[in-house]
Write a structure and sequence with these properties.
The chain has 75 residues and is an alpha+beta fold. It has one domain. It is 37% helix and 12% strand. The chain is built from two helices and three strands; from the N terminus they run ββαβα. The protein has a three-stranded antiparallel beta sheet. A hairpin with a 4-residue loop joins strand 1 and strand 2. It is elongated.
């Protein structure tokens, strides 16, 4: 088990047909080799959908909060 810290999406397609949202380190951590940069074509093996949308939502909220903190001089 190797935790991958992912602060921005950097999708890669693994040879197993799964899109790994946190890049090469995420694929390597899962034991998959990278087939290509970017999203996998079609049948994503569950690599997208709800999990991908949740990750994107977390990133959007994080950026909004960061912007508010910077705007009001809290950071």
């Amino acid at each position: 088990n190797c935790p991958v810290k992912c602060f921005r999406t950097d999708p890669v397609c693994g040879e197993d047909g799964v899109t790994y949202w946190c890049g090469c380190a995420d694929a390597r951590c899962s034991g998959a080799r990278v087939k290509k940069l970017g999203f996998c074509d079609g049948g994503n093996g569950g690599g997208s959908g709800t999990a991908g949308q949740a990750l994107l939502l977390v990133h959007i909220i994080w950026l909004i909060l960061l912007g508010v903190f910077v705007l009001f001089g809290l950071l």
